Amino acid sequence: MNSNQAYLVLNLSQNASYAEVKQAYRKLVLESHPDRNRSEQDGRKFRIVTEAYHLLKKNNRIQNSAQKNAKPNQESPPTRQSWGVNQRGTPPEEDWSKYTKQTEQSDPRFWQEYVAEFWKNYDSQKTEQRKNPYDFEIIQEKPTLVRPSVDHSLCIGCCSCETIAPGVFHIDKKSKMNPKSNVVNQNGASMEKIIDAAQTCPTKAIKVEERESGRRLFPY
Q1: How many CB atoms neighbour CB 187 within 10 A?
Q2: CA 133, CA 151: separation in Å to the nearest integer?
Q3: What's the CA gap between 140 and 43, in Å, rounded?
Q4: Phi, psi (5° rounding) for residue 188?
Q5: Angle between helix 108-129 and helix 97-106 axes, rounded to 10 deg
Q6: If we measure between CA atoms, which residue out of 163, 171, 101 comes closest to residue 126?
Q7: 18 contact partners, CB below 8 Å, separation of at least 6
Q8: Can you state the angle between helices 44-69 and 191-200, rounded to 10 degrees?
Q9: The predicted structure's pLDDT at residue 83
Q10: Model confidence at 2, in pLDDT bands (50, 70, 90)?
Q11: Residue 76 contacts by C-beta under 8 Å, 6 or more apart in sequence?
Q12: Most buried residue, 78, 115, 149, 156, by CB count within 10 Å?
């Protein structure tokens, strides 16, 4: 998935702000949650919406970091951009819309078929990578400096935490009644991933604390 497709999934234009991205994500993730929408019991749309949001979130973080590191009054003269990797050294995903916009407008039917084929291939690749969606592997990484926990009274089983940090969080999808997220391994992901997982929880059911001091890192 690239940035252009991520905006398409969230029903946003290419120039949408990050605040609009978060708002669209929260709306769609609740609408597509299997517990709230009987037509989305397989959770496919929910997973795609979550993946699109995290791609745009990562791009926003990279862009903000580049702006902070840029030194004032030392801008290099404008140069003609060549095809391929941009000056930041990353693939120009955020610029792909200028190559697809003409096709979208001139032949919308072809574009719709292209998008449908993309999601078809996406699903088949995911199936090959993980044939049993209930299998998960506990990965033991270096001990993290944080301690995550889940408040079951707030958890709605939306799977966003498991999508981001599957080595830390797990939801029993075989449960027929109100499945909840559980911490299966506190060292199953980096501190950054654990905090990212907590931040995407729509009900703020995940609490993250410093392991030694007990100071809460999230929710703030």
Answers
A1: 16
A2: 24
A3: 27
A4: -80, 0
A5: 120
A6: 163
A7: 56, 57, 60
A8: 120
A9: 46
A10: confident
A11: none
A12: 156
- Tens of pLDDT, residue by residue over 94-152, are 445 555 566 566 666 766 776 677 667 666 665 555 555 555 555 555 667 899 999 99
Three-class SS state of 112: helix
For residues 45-74, one letter each, b for 16 or more C-beta atoms within 10 angstroms of the residue's C-beta and e for the rest, the string is bbbbbbbbbbbbbebeeeeeeeeeeeeeee
**How far separated are the first and last CA of the chain, in Å rounded?**
32
Q: How many angstroms separate the CA atoms of 138 and 157, rounded?
A: 20
Which domains are seen in the chain, by residue range? Answer: 3-68+92-129 (1.10.287.110), 146-218 (3.30.70.20)
Handedness of CA 48, 162, 142, 214 (dihedral sign): positive
Q: Which two tokens stand for residue 45?
A: 């749309």
CA 169 from chain center: how many Å? Answer: 15
- What is the per-residue pLDDT for 82? 47
Q: What is the pLDDT of residue 179?
A: 82
8 A C-beta contact, residue 78 and residue 25: no
pLDDT of residue 203 exceeding 60: yes
Is residue 206 within 8 A of residue 154, CB to CB? The reply is: no
| Structure tokens given for 54 | 């995290």
- DSSP code at position 133: T
pTM: 0.41
Q: How many residues does the chain have?
A: 220
